[in-house]
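F.,

This is the one I mentioned.
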């Protein structure tokens, strides 16, 4: 097991234990600095890697996988005040935290902080407080967030009554009492901002406020010499300009304001913060990863029905620049897009032994020893250019470099791997596209598709395992140290050598934390039938059952929650709590057949079912009409058969229900009796006798006789006597 930056280690000291975080490892993998995360006012400690290895071998040191500080929030989950405080603290220390390792040395740290005081409006106590927060909580910007996320009533709207809330007006006699901003007025403010302020006409906020009053708060309009004159409502009924400004800042954050005013393209060009730089050289494993995607030249079929051709898959690779190790991958039908890139990045930080097991491939850890995030990630302008990368930057302190347009050569390492993999796979995989595809007379290779998405992923995993463990890098330029140590130019050997001799910048984070941060987010509904997400499927979780969510939804109505989900596996979704934790929700049993499917196949199945329903709608309607006609015909015949005049009263007809039921029961039992051999012949001789009895019963029922009840009883005894004599003869 290798030590890496940001790792949590637990060390036994006499009878007690301490938990320390590794802050920095030198490129030679000889010394490191750690900090006690639970001590009051701790400072970095200098340790040697050999001492840590000895403690690990003696059982005095162990690794902690759970992150105790829940600081992995997205910016859209934070308030403007929290972000403002975080950025203020970051601006104070950002120039010194990167001065490694000098900032960890007690003597040099004092000089660095002293030089910082001359340039920053801060003091020793604040600087050391922010440095400790940054180091203890994982060396990320979010470590500097304030600790009152769950305190107070932030974000809760006040209940409006008849009385005006807020600061009383100074000149009530002139201005009036004022008006509360109701939901309706709030909606008007939002509409007016979008209509008048957020456009290309460069209207000021004051002008847009005036336009709102003219459109929504006018009392009357008249024309004087051809000019329109507007009479506004009484001043006590108008929202003030200060109220307008307040809701402008509350309804839109700073990014939304700039984007709405300038347009997204101009914002990204002129105002977006620079996400990364190319300052780092290629010094060791984890210093720089490259990520890219390609559409494979092979057609696949559905795992549900191999006659369904589902098109070509998208393949993502994440490759370490130093060792050329493939550290992450994703094969799916999504992309190239952020969703596909996100899946590849999650795989990058995942345990590959467990990942391979999902595809029925057993490997040992040393065959694919990669489950870390890098210091810098290089991508093209697309998947990683936008708001989706904020968790990478703020939560995991990963620098992102986006290459310019039409400069694929700047990601040449991962681009070359795509070409290499394609040459390995193409000769053996059916459904691949050849040169004469779409040429007149050429074969349509789509019809040769045989592999499912899972089977193609298995092939990609085997290709990666071969590349990482056996492929010789012919075009790799080794430096003097690699030549001196006679390191084989095979990715896994370069990776292992680099970890021992050039610690690099591998970032260790709990796998679940990385997944939760990068997984796509959506809304799910809590309903009486379960947690509704997707196309008519439902989930449940222990917390929902324990707290009675579903019973509450049946009474009060449904509500929504934030969920994270893995598009490759729809059996589970995760409710994201406000404190950064999560609840695991499992698919209900009646939907289990969807659980093992990816969201692509899941959506495909649902769409197919809807298509088949529409396709068969005419036939189903015709059969339903036939059924209705048949029912009507049977009912009409029954009405005609019962259209017999009778002089019995209603009371007489109702009084004989029990006797009528006994007669009918005896008849039905006789008809339904199971008879074998001679019994069937003997029964045939009795059918005529029973028929005569039934005719006599019907005749007496229809006759107008005062003794009809007595006759019915006599007939019942006659039927029973006939049944008894038949039994004795048998």
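My design for it:
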């Amino acid at each position: 097991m290798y030590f890496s930056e940001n790792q949590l280690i637990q060390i036994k000291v006499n009878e007690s234990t301490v938990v320390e975080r590794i802050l920095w490892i030198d490129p030679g993998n000889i010394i490191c600095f750690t900090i006690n995360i639970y001590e009051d006012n701790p400072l970095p400690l200098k340790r040697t890697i050999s001492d840590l290895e000895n403690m690990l071998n003696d059982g005095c040191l162990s690794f902690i996988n759970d992150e105790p500080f829940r600081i992995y929030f997205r910016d859209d989950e934070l308030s403007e005040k929290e972000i403002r405080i975080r950025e203020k603290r970051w601006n104070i220390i950002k120039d010194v935290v990167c001065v490694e390792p000098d900032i960890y040395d007690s003597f040099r740290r004092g000089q660095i902080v002293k030089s910082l005081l001359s340039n920053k409006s801060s003091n020793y106590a604040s600087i050391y407080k922010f440095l400790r927060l940054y180091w203890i909580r994982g060396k990320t910007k979010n470590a500097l967030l304030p600790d009152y996320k769950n305190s107070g009533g932030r974000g809760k709207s006040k209940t409006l009554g008849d009385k005006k809330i807020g600061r009383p007006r100074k000149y009530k006699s002139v201005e009036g009492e004022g008006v509360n901003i109701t939901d309706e007025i709030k909606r008007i403010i939002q509409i007016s901002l979008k209509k008048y302020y957020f456009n290309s006409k460069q209207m000021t906020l004051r002008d847009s406020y005036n336009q709102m009053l003219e459109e929504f708060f006018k009392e009357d309009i008249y024309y004087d010499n051809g000019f329109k004159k507007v009479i506004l409502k009484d001043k006590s009924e108008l929202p003030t300009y200060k109220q307008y400004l307040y809701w402008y800042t509350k309804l839109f954050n700073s990014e939304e304001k700039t984007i709405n005013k300038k347009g997204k393209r101009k914002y990204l060009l002129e105002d977006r913060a620079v996400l990364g730089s190319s300052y780092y050289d290629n010094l060791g494993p984890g210093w720089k990863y490259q990520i890219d995607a390609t559409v494979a030249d092979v057609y696949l079929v559905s795992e549900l029905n191999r006659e369904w051709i589902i098109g070509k898959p998208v393949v993502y690779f994440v490759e370490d620049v130093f060792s050329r190790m493939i550290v992450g991958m994703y094969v799916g039908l999504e992309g190239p897009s952020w969703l596909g890139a996100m899946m590849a990045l999650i795989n990058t930080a995942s345990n590959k032994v467990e990942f391979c097991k999902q595809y029925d491939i057993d490997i040992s850890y040393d065959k694919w020893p990669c489950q870390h995030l890098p210091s810098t990630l290089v991508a093209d302008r697309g998947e990683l250019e936008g708001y989706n990368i904020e968790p990478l930057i703020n939560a995991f302190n990963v620098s992102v470099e986006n290459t310019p347009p039409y400069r694929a050569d700047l990601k040449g390492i991962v681009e070359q791997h795509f070409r290499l993999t394609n040459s390995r796979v193409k000769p053996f995989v059916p459904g691949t596209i050849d040169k004469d595809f779409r040429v007149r007379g050429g074969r349509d290779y789509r019809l040769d598709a045989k592999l499912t998405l899972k089977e193609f992923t298995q092939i990609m995993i085997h290709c990666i395992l071969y590349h990482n463990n056996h492929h010789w890098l012919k075009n790799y330029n080794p430096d003097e140290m690699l030549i001196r140590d006679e390191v084989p130019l095979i990715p896994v050997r370069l990776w292992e050598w680099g970890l021992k001799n050039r610690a690099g910048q591998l970032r260790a984070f709990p796998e679940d934390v990385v997944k939760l941060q990068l997984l796509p987010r959506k809304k799910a509904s809590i309903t009486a039938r379960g947690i509704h997400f997707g196309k008519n499927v439902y989930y449940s979780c222990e917390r929902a059952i324990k707290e009675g969510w579903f019973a509450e939804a049946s009474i009060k109505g449904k509500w929504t929650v934030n969920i994270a989900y893995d598009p490759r596996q729809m059996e589970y979704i995760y409710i994201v709590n406000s404190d950064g934790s999560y609840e695991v929700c499992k698919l209900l049993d009646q939907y289990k057949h969807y659980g093992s499917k990816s969201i692509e196949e899941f959506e495909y199945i649902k769409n197919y079912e809807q298509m088949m329903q529409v396709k068969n709608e005419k036939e189903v309607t015709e059969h339903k009409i036939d059924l209705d006609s048949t029912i009507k015909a049977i009912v009409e015949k029954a009405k005609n058969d019962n259209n017999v005049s009778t002089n019995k009263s209603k009371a007489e007809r109702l009084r004989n229900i029990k006797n009528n039921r006994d007669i009918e029961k005896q008849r039905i039992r006789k008809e339904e009796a199971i008879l074998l051999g001679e019994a069937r012949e003997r029964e045939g001789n009795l059918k005529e006798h029973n028929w005569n009895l039934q005719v006599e019963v019907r005749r007496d029922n229809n006759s107008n006789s005062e003794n009809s009840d007595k006759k019915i009883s006599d007939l019942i005894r006659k039927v029973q006597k006939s049944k008894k004599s038949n039994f004795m003869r048998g």
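Residues 598-643 form one domain.

Talk soon.
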